[in-house]
Amino acid sequence: MKYYIKALKNYANFSGRARRKEYWLFTLYNIIIYVALVILGTMVGFLPEGGEGVFGSLYMVGVLIPALAVFVRRLHDTGRSGWWFLLNFVPFGVIVVFVFLVEDSNPDSNKFGKNPKRSVA
Q1: Does 63 map to a domain?
Q2: Do 101 and 74 form a contact (C-beta atoms < 8 A)?
Q3: Half-sphere exposure of 116 (CA within 13 A, CB side)
Q4: Is residue 61 included in any domain, yes or no?
Q5: CB atoms within 10 A of CB 73
Q6: What string of pLDDT tens digits covers the 121 residues of the chain?
Q7: Which residues 6+ apart lie within 8 Å of 110 measured at CB?
Q8: DSSP secondary structure, the chain, as one string
Q9: Furthest C-alpha separation in the chain
Q10: In a domain? residue 121
Q11: Domain that holds residue 55
Q12: pTM value?
């Protein structure tokens, strides 16, 4: 949970680096919270016809900027610019970006900052 909070605190920080663990735990908690809110919206009766519900939609809008920021910082951790995000809009580009996201960090400092693994240990 601390990585989720950390990503939310750095909600508009597109500089620096984010560890693989920070990115994936943030993503996992986003999925869990989203599913819980959709279920809650269904139980309360706010689920429109064919929609995901009011609660889930509001949550996704609320975490859009923090999710983009941690995504860009994760790309920085692998030594890539945040502009690689645009590859998601190219056919099969999602697969390439996914490989970037699961790669290990650059072991040393890069132009985006110090290795976050080294500073935690």
Answers
A1: yes
A2: yes
A3: 20
A4: yes
A5: 24
A6: 888 888 888 888 898 899 899 999 999 999 999 988 888 877 766 555 555 677 888 899 999 999 999 999 999 999 999 999 999 999 999 999 999 999 988 888 888 888 887 765 4
A7: 17, 76, 79
A8: -HHHHHHHHTTT--SS---HHHHHHHHHHHHHHHHHHHHHHHHHT---TTS--HHHHHHHHHTHHHHHHHHHHHHHHTT--GGGGGGGGSTTHHHHHHHHHHSPPPSS-BTTBS-HHHHH-
A9: 52
A10: no
A11: 2-110
A12: 0.84
Amino acid at position 29, single letter: Y
Query: How many domains, in total, are found in the chain?
Result: 1
Query: Considering the domain boundaries, does residue 36 fall inside one?
Result: yes
Residue 78 corresponds to which tokens in the numbers above?
Answer: 């692998």
Q: What six digits make up the tokens of 39?
A: 């279920």
